[in-house]
Amino acid sequence: MEAVPASDRPQYDPTCYLCPGNTRAGGVRNPKYSSTFVFDNDFAALQKDSPTERIDIQQKGLLVAEGEPGACRVMCFSPRHDLTLSSMAASEIEQVIQAWTEQFTLLAAKPGIRHVQIFENRGEMMGASNPHPHCQIWGTHSIPQLPSRELVSQQEYFKTNHDCLFCDYIEIEAQESSRIVCRNDGFVTIVPFWAVWPFEVLLCSRRHLGSMPELNRAEVAHLAEALKHIVSIYDRVFGVPFPYSMGFHQTPSDGSPHPEWHFHAHFYPPLLRSATVRKFMVGFEMLGNPQRDITPELAAEKLRSLTDFK
Ligand SMILES: [Zn+2]
Ligand SMILES: [Zn+2]
Ligand SMILES: [Zn+2]
Fold this sequence. Notes:
Blueprint: E1 37-40, E2 54-57, E3 63-66, E4 70-76, H1 90-108, E5 115-122, E6 134-140, H2 145-161, H3 165-176, E7 180-183, E8 187-190, E9 201-205, H4 217-237, E10 244-249, E11 264-268, H5 284-287, H6 296-305
Antiparallel strand pairs: 1-4, 2-3, 4-6, 5-6, 5-10, 7-8, 8-9, 9-11, 10-11
Helix pairs in contact: 1-4
């Protein structure tokens, strides 16, 4: 059985490569940072000078390889080793959003970077190698598969309906209300109609906008509140820091205008029945379709029932 992750961590861990003042692999020493801290990943999966050359082995279009130049950064949310998005103050999360916005702007402006992916893996179950609160930011030369499919869907919907796919979807969910977990003036958190992970949620801006630099001051505060809220609810589901992968899907930075794109985030948590029993995408799910273990309406009801704060 997998061990339940410990939540009583020290504020500073001398062996943590992300804590302020500590030395990382390769000998670089972190500054004594007091808010957020960003650095290039010491083991970057993407390199800025990789060739973009396309190789088609035997010219049959069957074995095609292409270089993927890009950048991989790591961002610490806080100097505190023991905090998480649920235990940080909303004002501290606003500083994280500010830093995400700066990184998005910087990377999206680089020639050859067409997509910026901000994502957080939380918990050993999701392969997070270090509990220090942090995320990764990858800038890639190509738009990856999932945002690329979302781009096509949003563009087709926009062309056909002269309206935004997400704006229309959010309106339907607001009328139905059974899959809404929580909302504030700027953001709405929904267990989507198509959810396959047990407590999967979609976090959408209520105003039509494409990326973080378009958020106004009030919306930054609303996003901070929405993030803190959903992770706090998650931590109550089984009484442990809830493992998940989360990430933001923002306007591609491919040089084209994207009036169809709607800013949102996905949370994919694997836990199903307890702190140690997770969902596996295996069998029919690998070979056919993902299967649902609980309905999105039941998942939303459970998450709503854990909202006795705010
Ligand atoms: Zn640390
Ligand atoms: Zn929209
Ligand atoms: Zn998305």
